[in-house]
Amino acid sequence: MAHMTGVVYLAYFAASILGLVLVSHELPGGLTVNCLSDVLYVVTAFMLYRLLRVASQVTALVALACCLIGCTMDLLRQIHHGWERIDPLLFFGPYCILLGVLLLRADFLPQWIGWPLIAAGVGWLAYLMPAVALHGKVVIFPLGFVAEFELMLWLLAKGVAEGRWAEAEVRRNSATGPAHT
After folding, report:
1. 143 and 123 in contact (C-beta within 8 Å)?
2. CA torsion 69→72→88→82, rounded to 10°?
3. What is the per-residue pLDDT across 77-130, written as a single tens digit (0 to 9) for each?
């Protein structure tokens, strides 16, 4: 499951970069590829929820909701449905922060990966302030990219410590009962 999450995450990165290039050069297909990247990000978020809910189901669920709302706002923004005033970063910032918190709680993935995600989430929220956006873009965008790219690479290359993840899943199931599995 962890390696497959890394594969879908990688597909999201590829689609995002391709979409950015196409749109910035006003080439055809940019909108379609950007919408595909949002769909891939939603799939990645569901897979990360499944993986990280053993660290904290409530936190993972709130993170998933933030990502879903952020992707919805991004899609609506791209197709110009009047949602331009609601910046998706308002939801992606908390999503990254919550992902980082989940990684700090998880003992089946390296906790150090959580800190850059938390910093990236704070950066996304700070970017919503015009003064920060004007001067902080050169730091915030690379930080956000690197933080998520590290997680994607780890999942792709190493996965999770399966024994520890299975133990956490058993603890979660015994705490919530069989109706919630």
Report:
1. yes
2. -120
3. 888 776 677 889 999 999 999 999 999 999 889 999 999 999 999 999 999 998
Among candidate residues 39, 19, 41, the one with its CA nearest the CA of residue 30? 19
Return the SS3 of 81: coil
Contact 148, 120 (CB under 8 A): yes
What is the per-residue pLDDT for 103? 95
DSSP annotation string for 109-137: S-GGGHHHHHHHHHHHHHHTSHHHHHHHH
Whether 47 and 8 have beta carbons less than 8 Å apart is answered as yes
Q: What is the CB-side half-sphere exposure of residue 96 using CA atoms within 13 A?
A: 28
Quote the pTM value. Answer: 0.88
Q: Using an 8 Å Cβ cutoff, are 168 and 19 in contact?
A: no
* 66, 96 Cβ separation under 8 angstroms: no
What are the tens digits of pLDDT across the range 30-77?
A: 889 989 999 999 999 999 999 999 989 999 999 999 999 999 999 888
b/e code 74-83 from CB counts within 10 Å (16+ = b): bbebbeeeeb
